[in-house]
Amino acid sequence: MASNASSALLKWAQAASRGFAAGAAGGPGRKVAVLGAAGGIGQPLSMLMKMNAQVSELSLYDIAGTPGVAADVGHINTKAQAKGYDKEGLAEALRGCDLVIIPAGVPRKPGMTRDDLFKINAGIVRDLVEAVGKHCPGAVLNIISNPVNSTVPIAAEQLKKMGVYDKRKIMGVTTLDVVRAKTFYAEKNGLDVASVDVPVVGGHAGVTILPLFSQATPKVSMPADVLDALTKRTQDGGTEVVQAKAGKGSATLSMAYAAALFADSCLRGLNGTPVVECTYVESTITDAPYFASKVKLSTEGVDKVHDLGTLTDYEKDGLKAMMPELLASIEKGVQFVKGA
Ligand SMILES: NC(=O)c1ccc[n+]([C@@H]2O[C@H](COP(=O)([O-])OP(=O)(O)OC[C@H]3O[C@@H](n4cnc5c(N)ncnc54)[C@H](O)[C@@H]3O)[C@@H](O)[C@H]2O)c1
Ligand SMILES: O=C(O)C[C@H](O)C(=O)O
């Protein structure tokens, strides 16, 4: 089992940029859907999934703009057959899917929190997941739409309501937090980023994002102020991009990259090569019923949720500090479906 997907995934990304299938994983061709495929994340993510040798069929669904994206992506000379679907085509887009990736919904503008997106995105995610429950209930779900801390519980509750919930299949994508932590840690310590790993646990918003630099490899002992600055930069990474884009949205390219890495790990797991990734799933390792930690992804999705390992006092404080916000966001998501 790959103890960490990063080196395999970097090889995949390098192989993909050289000419795709060389060096990429094989296995049976999988049907993958991207819901929100014409968006800022959706378009580059659709391209990256078209480059993934584990994909045989790629459904590109959005409420507008998918014919153009599908025609464009479809010209890439890889084996996956890309097809665009509009509103009427959702059922067909989903039927037979092994993996459904959801980046549909509105992004933040400067001054907004991720929770400010709840009003619009909660309903979008609930309705799309309802369609997943109807048309491909066994598929693995990768949820990108914010606020992830709430949209994952929304997806779970919706599937529970329909009697098709399987906790092994629903994952909130927190890979961008790991990607950022690795980048910032490598930069700060003069390390080769390809050799770096940093687990990031908790959730995906502000203080709920907790990088565990004490468990980073290679190990570097950092002064307290540097550690604090790196932790805060990782927690505020999304806001850094939102501010830099100045009203034109949030992270799209780094997110598409992160989502493609995570989706690749899910497909590897489904195809019998277990991979360990940090992701936000139903969990019992803390007081929070959903929590991101290292998770073993295997043939049925989530196979094992790893515990947190040994935390430093600084990390224990971070864990304690995130709980009120994380628990409230989870409850808000649960009530959105249950209370309806
Ligand atoms: N998990 C993460 O780490 C992470 C990182 C970056 C962004 N995000 C989130 O991802 C979401 C999308 O961001 P973006 O920059 O791609 O936004 P965007 O506005 O560029 O794209 C969103 C797309 O979703 C589509 N859409 C809206 N309602 C839909 C529906 N009912 N069905 C299908 N498609 C629908 C829109 O037409 C649009 O094409 C946002 O909520 C953002 O906050 C999450
Ligand atoms: O920050 C955002 O709103 C988008 C995303 O969650 C991110 O971390 O970049």
Could you characterize what this model shows?
With 340 residues, this protein is an alpha/beta fold. It has 2 domains: 27-173, Rossmann fold, CATH 3.40.50; 174-339, L-2-Hydroxyisocaproate Dehydrogenase, Chain A, domain 2 (Alpha-Beta Complex). 44% of the residues lie in helices and 17% in strands. The chain contains 11 helices and 11 strands. The chain has helices spanning 6-19, 42-50, 66-74, 90-94, 118-135, 148-161, 175-189, 224-235, 237-245, 253-270, 313-338, and strands at residues 30-35, 55-61, 81-85, 99-102, 140-143, 170-172, 200-202, 209-211, 275-282, 290-298, 301-305. Strands 3-2-1-4-5-6 form a 6-stranded parallel sheet, sandwiched between helices. Helix 5 (118-135) links the parallel strand 4 and strand 5 (140-143). Helix 5 runs parallel beside helix 6, helix 6 packs across helix 11 (313-338) and helix 7 (175-189) packs antiparallel against helix 8 (224-235). The radius of gyration is 19 Å and the shape is globular. Mean pLDDT is 94; it is low at 17-24. Nicotinamide-adenine-dinucleotide is lined by residues 35-36, 38-42, 62-64, 103-108, 117, 121, 124, 128, 144-146, 148, 173, 176, 204, 249-252, 255. One of its GO terms (biological process) is tricarboxylic acid cycle. Pfam families: Ldh_1_C, Ldh_1_N. Residues 31-172 form the Lactate/malate dehydrogenase N-terminal domain. This is Malate dehydrogenase. It is an enzyme of class 1 (oxidoreductase).
